[in-house]
Design brief:
This protein is mainly alpha-helical. The chain is built from 16 helices and no strands.
Length: about 425
């Protein structure tokens, strides 16, 4: 080997250098065998030098391979035998792993698939059972509601007051049905029986119950004055029956008022109840205004008209007293309140808050007074006998209106306010007469 490297023309140090660059090496060969100013350059000499170096490398490789052939062959055989032994061990381990995986798949995988099917079946059975119970509950409540609605619609002669007493239980049944549909609306919506109950029974019953309750509130009267005529006072039994019917109707409207999602008892507003009571007050106010306007134009009818107006005010006073005694019932769709100071204690409070007034009789007389001045001025502007008669009977009208307000406040818990309301009312009617 020493002789070969000394006799070799191959510059091994240059080729083995870490900084060897083929382009620099080729450039140096060309510059060694050519003059830089020659044109064209002679490239055959440097090219033959490189080819010679390649042949020298090939010859050297052949020489080293031939000299060390036994050791190379022996090393290759050892490596091959070692690889075969490693391969045999690996194949045995792979075979064991495959067998373990197959056994695991049989013992776990198949059992898991079977268990998954059982779980799926059990889950669907539970859902079906729950849906069946919900449908059963809906159907039972539907039958119960149907019987209650028959009782509500029964004529008073069959069982006196039974219809009014059945309105509140029917309302609670409707709320239970509403809760059932809210909890499982998606599932129940695909069940024909529940859909039939909702469409053919729940919706018409709720509409009819609200209409019946609103009618009871609209017809509330303890003085015998209804649509305009006057009749005798009701007996004690009749008055108590009227109060009981009105209380049931108002509780029904309270319960059936729309409830917003995630609403609390503190934020709940009984809109149906407030609207029915406001409509009652507005009807009494409108009728009284029209009647008093006609009576001022024809004074002979004034006394009778003022009697009717005071009777309406007495009804409003009785309504206020009744509202103050009715406590809001527990609402099935609303969570109980944590504090008793934030909820209404009776049905009167939300109505007064909505009307922004301190009492219903005060609201009645103030509302009338606010519109009577214009009515009186209209009579005076028309002139004629009506205007002259009204001016000449100014004192009589003043005393009659004051007495009317006094009669209307009889039975009110706050009778001390009647003089103030009477002064406002007298001023609105008699005030324009002195101008």
């Amino acid at each position: 080997m020493a002789d070969t490297s000394t006799s070799s023309y191959l510059d091994t140090k240059t080729f083995l250098s870490p900084t060897f660059s083929p382009s620099i090496y080729a450039n140096s060969l060309i510059l060694q065998t050519n003059n830089a100013s020659d044109t064209p350059l002679d490239l055959s000499t440097p090219l033959s030098r490189v080819l010679f170096d390649v042949q020298e490398v090939d010859t050297k490789i052949d020489t080293l391979t031939t000299q060390n052939a036994p050791r190379i062959i022996s090393h290759a055989q050892n490596e091959t035998e070692s690889g075969k032994r490693v391969l045999e061990v690996v194949e045995e381990q792979v075979k064991v792993l495959n067998e373990s995986y197959e056994r695991l798949e049989r013992e776990v995988g198949e059992r898991y698939e079977a268990a998954e099917q059982v779980r799926l079946v059990a889950e669907r059975m539970v859902r079906t059972l729950r849906l069946g119970r919900q449908v059963q509950r809906v159907v039972q409540l539907g039958r119960q509601l149907e019987g209650q609605m028959e009782e509500v619609s029964s004529p008073p002669s069959a069982r006196q007051g039974s219809g009014a007493r059945a309105m509140v239980p029917a309302s609670r049944t409707l709320l239970e049905l509403r809760g059932c549909f809210a909890e499982g609306s998606a599932e129940l919506g695909r069940c024909q029986a529940a859909v039939v109950v909702r469409q053919d029974l729940v919706t018409p019953s709720e509409r009819g119950l609200v209409s019946r309750a609103q009618g009871v509130v609209r017809e509330f009267s303890l003085s015998g004055v209804g649509g305009g005529g006057a009749s005798g006072e009701k007996t004690f039994a009749q008055a108590e029956e009227t109060k009981a019917r009105a209380a049931s109707a108002m509780q029904t409207l309270y319960l059936l008022s729309p409830v917003k999602r995630d609403a609390t008892l503190e934020a709940f507003e009984p809109t149906l109840l407030v609207q029915a009571l406001q409509s009652y007050l507005q009807t009494a106010l409108t009728s009284s205004l029209a009647a008093l306007s006609r009576a001022l134009a024809t004074l002979p009818t004034l006394e009778r008209t003022l009697l009717e107006i005071s009777a309406r005010c007495q009804n409003i006073t009785a309504l206020e007293n009744l509202l103050e005694t009715i406590k809001p019932p527990a609402h099935p769709l609303l969570p109980p309140s944590d504090s008793s100071t934030t909820t209404d204690d009776n049905f009167l409070q939300p109505l007064l808050r909505h009307l922004d007034t301190s009492s219903l009789p005060s609201y009645f007389w103030r509302s009338m007074a606010g519109q009577m001045t214009a009515r009186v001025q209209e009579i005076l502007q028309k002139g004629g006998v009506s205007a002259r008669t009204l001016r000449s009977n100014r004192d009589r009208v003043r005393d009659s209106v004051r007495e009317c307000v006094d009669r209307g406040y009889r039975g009110a818990k706050k009778q001390g306010n009647w003089e103030r309301e009477a002064a406002v009312m007298v001023g609105s009617v008699v005030g324009p007469l002195g101008r």
